[in-house]
Design a protein that fits this description.
This protein is of the alpha/beta class. It has helices at residues 2-30, 43-56, 75-85, 100-114, 130-141, 157-164, 184-189, 213-226, 281-294, 300-310, 314-337, 362-373, 399-408, and strands spanning 62-63, 124-127, 147-152, 168-173, 195-200, 229-233, 257-262, 275-279, 341-342, 351-355, 375-376, 378-379, 390-394. Bound molecules: pyridoxal-5'-phosphate.
């Protein structure tokens, strides 16, 4: 009897322990990393699921929300990549730094377009898009507890990359009244002791504001004075912009300045995932360390296609911008019809930034338009508190579709 009781006791204890262990393991597996505590799913990832559901229910939503170019790359670019695919040598791993021919094509492009004199051997690094670069730069320079200056409004990835590394974004306000240029006297008043990076983005998304030469030189001086790395994210420089600029045009190689650029918007190659980082060679070396641990080189045919794109003649840019200019006329009409005020008719980039009337809330207006008129636009507040009360409309839809959206408002 006693032996039976002992046996039951042992078995019960064993099962309890095993359950506890399994529960503990399950809890461990279910818990995401602490660094994700402040990260939410990207707004568009969530909202586009809602749009998809509405489409599934037969709503035929017109999407004027996102900036993914609908026009294709130049045929030369596509043919170069196709020919390359047929060569057996193309399918190997590639150099971490990109092939020399691509790096030379980037420095030639920068020289021609932005009057810079970058060294192809150590001042450019091909990347899989500008977005990848934002994370790589953050990984290369941020420790837990560091701070980063982030524009408000601005591209949300600057702050999510910062938060993912347990660093702190410090938002600096960009105001319409100041043509969305940084307010340097306000910046000087901030506690900058822990600030290591400052993100700037000209031409600016979502507002389309361009930086003046003065803004770039003041940024370079500000970075030098406070020992902060300034990074200009520059993917929109060739869209609806008569005067493409680069911060590197005004910097020396030893200034703490970097610039991201991308083929996504200029050459309609968003899905190719190809862009570049340029600037201070010592800083680039650190980013390369991160990159060598994260990927194994860019697909050779993507690099060859990108070279063909960077060498396109002026006609490419003219044709592209003529198309966007025509589309923008209709987008302006949509904004007018809804009583929204266009922030700047000279804006660069793929978007129109418009102010709502009577202090309306951006997301409320977006949902009303989505559910009542089946048109999706982006609410300004997803780009920061300073974007509240604004709407971003994309030019990445054919004219006929934009016209149809306009018709739906009648
Ligand atoms: C300001 C800004 N930076 C970077 C990106 C990402 O570009 P890429 O496709 O080169 O990663 C975007 C894309 O929307 C953007 O708006």
């Amino acid at each position: 009897m006693l032996i039976k009781k002992i046996r039951i006791f042992i078995i019960r204890n064993y099962l309890l322990k095993r359950n506890e262990l399994l529960l503990g393991q399950k809890e461990k597996q279910m818990k995401p990393a602490i660094r994700l505590n402040n990260i939410e799913e990207y707004y568009f990832s969530k909202k586009l699921r809602e749009v998809e559901n509405l489409n599934f229910k037969g709503k035929a939503i017109i999407n004027l929300g996102i900036g993914s170019p609908d026009l294709g790359p130049h045929p030369k670019v596509i043919n170069t990549a196709i020919d390359c695919m047929r060569q057996s040598q193309s399918h190997k791993y590639q150099s971490y730094r990109g092939i020399s021919e691509f790096r030379k094509a980037i420095t030639d492009f920068y020289r021609k377009q932005f009057r810079t004199n970058l060294n192809w051997e150590n001042q450019v690094l091909p990347l899989m898009g500008s977005k990848e670069g934002i994370m790589h730069i953050s990984l290369a320079f941020l420790n837990k507890g560091d701070s980063v200056l982030v524009p408000d409004p601005g591209y949300p990835t600057y702050s999510s990359a910062t938060k993912m590394l347990e660093a702190e974004p410090i938002y600096y306000k960009l105001d319409e009244i100041n043509n969305y240029q940084p307010n340097f006297s306000a910046l000087e008043k901030l506690d900058l002791k822990r600030v290591k990076l400052m993100w700037v983005n000209y031409p600016h998304m979502p507002t389309g504001a361009d930086a003046s030469k003065e803004t770039f030189t003041r940024l370079i001086n500000f970075g030098r004075k406070h020992n902060i790395i300034i990074i200009n994210d520059n993917p929109y420089s060739f869209i609806l912009n008569d005067n493409p600029c680069s911060i590197l045009e005004h910097a020396n190689p030893d200034n703490n300045i970097l610039e991201l650029n991308s083929l996504s918007k200029t050459f309609n190659m968003a899905g190719w995932r190809v862009g570049m980082l340029a600037g201070n060679p010592d800083l680039l070396k650190e980013v390369l360390k991160v990159k060598t641990q994260m990927d194994s080189g860019m697909f050779y045919c993507v690099q060859k296609g990108a070279i063909a794109a960077l060498r396109l003649s002026k006609d490419w840019y003219t044709k592209l911008n003529n198309e966007y200019r025509e589309r923008r006329e209709y987008i302006w009409k949509i904004a007018d019809k809804l009583g929204w005020k266009i922030s700047n008719k000279e804006a660069s980039g793929l978007f129109v930034w418009a102010k709502l009337k009577n202090g309306e809330k951006s997301e409320k207006v977006v949902d009303r338009l989505l559910y009542e008129k089946s048109i999706f636009v982006a609410p300004g507040n997803i780009f920061g508190d300073n974007g509240e009360g604004y709407i971003r409309l994309s030019l990445c839809m054919p004219k006929e579709v934009i016209r149809e959206a306009l018709g739906r408002l009648d």
